[in-house]
Amino acid sequence: MNTNRSLPRRAALAATAAAVGLVLAACGSDNSANTAGTTPATAPASTEADRHNQADVTFAQGMIPHHRQAVLMSDMVATHAASTDVKTLAKKIKKAQASEIETMSGWLKAWGEKVPTGHGMDGMGHGDDDSGMPGMMNDQDMSRLGNAEGNAFDTMFLTLMIEHHEGAIGMAETEKQQGAYNPAKALADDIITSQTAEIAQMRTMLKTG
After folding, report:
1. Mean pLDDT of 20-47
2. 161 with 70: CB under 8 angstroms?
3. I want to staple 59 with a disulfide (CB 3.0 to 4.6 A). Which of 123, 168, 175, 204 is the partner?
4. Tens digits of per-residue pLDDT, 51-104?
């Protein structure tokens, strides 16, 4: 009799154990689903921060040759300028813009975009006309600057670099308005701040020189 009674009891216990197992398995599945769901949730944040658009590409591809020309102009100062202040300013411009060229080139490579070569002067117009980027010097401008010496060079360098800076500021303002890549927009802001200050400095130098 005891044996017969124990059989249903054992069956009931087995059924209970199986039910508990199913509940635990279900809980485990829920936890796995929740854990798996957290990974995609964090991914878009990183993607959003790193995204860029065509305006960012245009900014980098335009500003690189623009900066290279400023570096080339600054390189002339050591052997052509008379003013120590002009020489000091040229070194500052070259150091800042050479570093920014490296930064923007890195972005373009990471995006799979073409990095401009050369100084971008071929076919470039002077000023804000339709033939080139704002503030870029044409071949005649660069030739005149390269042939100048002493105080005449200083005056020409400062005058042309003011226009060059104004063009860069315009390009940077466009990037801030239309760009999507946060580091590029931050660089644009830095360019506006630093080159606006340098324009004020160069205008003072022209007045007092």
Report:
1. 44
2. yes
3. 175
4. 999 999 999 999 999 999 999 999 999 999 999 999 999 999 999 999 999 999
pLDDT tens figures, 146-203: 999 999 999 999 999 999 999 999 999 999 999 999 999 999 999 999 999 999 999 9
R_g of the chain, CA atoms, integer Å: 32
Calpha distance 154→209 (Å, rounded) = 9
Phi-psi region of 191 (alpha: psi -120 to 50; beta: other; left: phi over 0): alpha
- Token pair 């929740």: residue: 34
CA dihedral 103, 108, 112, 118 (to 10 degrees): -110
- Other C-beta atoms closer than 10 Å to the C-beta of 77 total 23
For the stretch 123-144, pLDDT in tens is: 333 343 343 689 999 999 999 9
CB 178 within 8 A of CB 45: no
pTM for the predicted model, two decimal places: 0.73
CA distances from 103 to 3, 64, 119, 144, 180 (A): 84, 10, 17, 31, 17
- Burial class of residue 49 in the structure, from the number of CB atoms within 10 Å of its CB (0-12 exposed, 13-18 middle, 19+ buried): exposed
